[in-house]
Amino acid sequence: MDNRPIGVMDSGIGGLTVFDQLKKVLPSESFIYVGDQANLPYGEKTSEEVYQLTKRIADYFLTRNVKMMVIACNTATAAAADRLKRELPIPVIGVIQPGAKASVKVTKNGNIGVIGTNGTVNSKSYERLILKEQQDANVFQLGCPDFVTIVEDGDAGTEKAREVVADQLKYFDDKNIDTLILGCTHFPIIEKEVTNAMPGVTLVDPGMATAIIAKNQIETYKIASDGKPKPTEFFTTGDNEYFTKQASTFLTTTITSNKLDL
Ligand code: DGL
After folding, report:
1. Does residue 1 belong to any structural domain of this protein?
2. Percent of the chain scored above 70 by pLDDT?
3. Going by fewer Cβ within 10 Å, which terminus of the chain is more open, N or C?
4. Range of 250's domain?
5. Are 112 and 179 in contact (CB under 8 A)?
6. pLDDT band for position 256 (50/70/90)?
């Protein structure tokens, strides 16, 4: 039995969409969540900057004796997952490979769209991993940093969100995609707006596939808890009251968070 918590991180509240799936698949585990809102958006930073920011959260997790790190952020996965997998003494899981694999299972015509931050899109990580799984796939990527702002500003569900999402996703009008990866963990929060703009297209949220990989790793490393999870500790490096308010509107339970200075 291993009752150490699992560390989950994102630049903000987006990673809570992955945390939600982790809680469903691993109800017996304890979690520590860190939203690095003081440094949001990660998507407009260089890959090295994002690696350094992610590394310092990994170092914090190690001081908290976590048994696994889940990078619940596509941008940080693209910039830091490979390095941290080599550097940390614990399993590290990202969201891109699970999302890429899930999309290939779903597509029928091989035309797959990806929406994410500019950092994720420019890394071409999704494209590389999708083509590894299915060589004849056509991958169309679109950077949508404004969608992150909509979510972090609490504008999901508003007319403004509907308009911005519909307008930007026009890019896919002539691409004949049948599958669209929500390649940013903030985007499941505006899933309704995306569905409305892309009728008939199957959306892939990498969160569930990531949670299943986390479960498999726990089994492989034999590090499951004894079934008595502690309440999740939520931290933000930004404004604590704001994080608590935002997270509580999105999660089904009310939470309290703490300010973290790293
Ligand atoms: N949630 C992050 C992701 O999945 C991105 C948000 C940001 O730009 O910080 O890529």
Report:
1. no
2. 100
3. N
4. 6-94+208-259
5. yes
6. confident
Same domain, 73 and 15: yes
Helices (H) and strands (E) in the chain — how many of each? 11, 10
- Counting from 1 in the atom list of ligand 1, the atom nearest the Cα of 145 is 8
169 and 191 co-located in one domain: yes
CATH number of the domain enclosing 35: 3.40.50.1860
| Same domain for 240 and 111 | no
Distance 14 CA to ligand 1 centre (A): 7
DSSP classification of residue 166: H
Question: Which pLDDT band holds residue 148 (cuts at 50, 70, 90)?
Answer: very high
Residue among 34, 40, 46, 73 whose CB has most ligand 1 atoms within 8 A, to mutate: 73
CA-CA distance, 12 to 185, in Å (whole number)? 9
77 lines ligand 1 (CB under 6 A): no
Cα 130 to Cα 136: distance, rounded to the nearest angstrom: 10
Name the domain count of the chain: 2
For residue 157, being part of any structural domain is answered with: yes
